[in-house]
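BACKBONE GEOMETRY TOKENS:
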Amino acid sequence: MKQFLIIISILLISSAFVFQYEIDEFKPFPHESINKGEQLDYRIHYGIFTVGNAKVKVYPELYRVNDRSCYKVDVYGETVGTVKWFAKVDDNWGGFVDSKALLPHMSWRNIKEGKYRKNEIVNFDHKDKSIEVKTINNKTGKFKEPKYYKAPNNVKDLVGGFLYLRAIDYSKYKLKDTIKMNAFFEDTVYNFRILYMGKDKVKTKAGTFKALKLVPVMPDNKIFAGENSVTLWLSDDENKIPIKAEANMFIGKAGVELNGFKNVKHEPSLVNR
């Protein structure tokens, strides 16, 4: 159950990728999708059962990090109901993301899953193409020696990828076009492909939306059932809100569904409420 809940929390921010393009660091990436002060609420489910809730919060003010203007974003996820009794999860993922280039400057993970704890801070140096990862020693409460990794061009973390995915102009893609990407997570840069699968209509607790459908091609693993086992839908409007994610796993079907939203920038593509 613990493994499953970790996977579902990752699904919410499964946009944690970097699209590969050859530009200078901090070149502006125009976007009109993200609103300061917005909040997205999600239901996490396994089959028909609700097992958790999640929230994505963009703070109403901009912050200054590395002498750059940044969004501050926090993602919270927790188990609910009877699941909380035997698989308690209370996670926080967050970061400062460049408000012009949508590149991460700093990110953090504060993980509480049963007795497991992990507190991590990641600093990104896009000019020197390096990543510093600092983790707290659970026994001493102090940071261990930092670890350093080589960063590819325009690398994204989980939170930065969440915002970047919403900024892409999908009208440029044709059905089944492939988007190549990389993702840095923990100590590895992962290479991924995402298939653009056209337009759809998706029913959620927050309403029925016109949607864009994306299918990440999953590498061979012992968790997901096949390379096309994960599907992500974004609202087909200027907000491009992640509204639903589904995963076919060897232990069953799980997913994340939009439960509510506040302070989005544009009128959402609701078919009905």
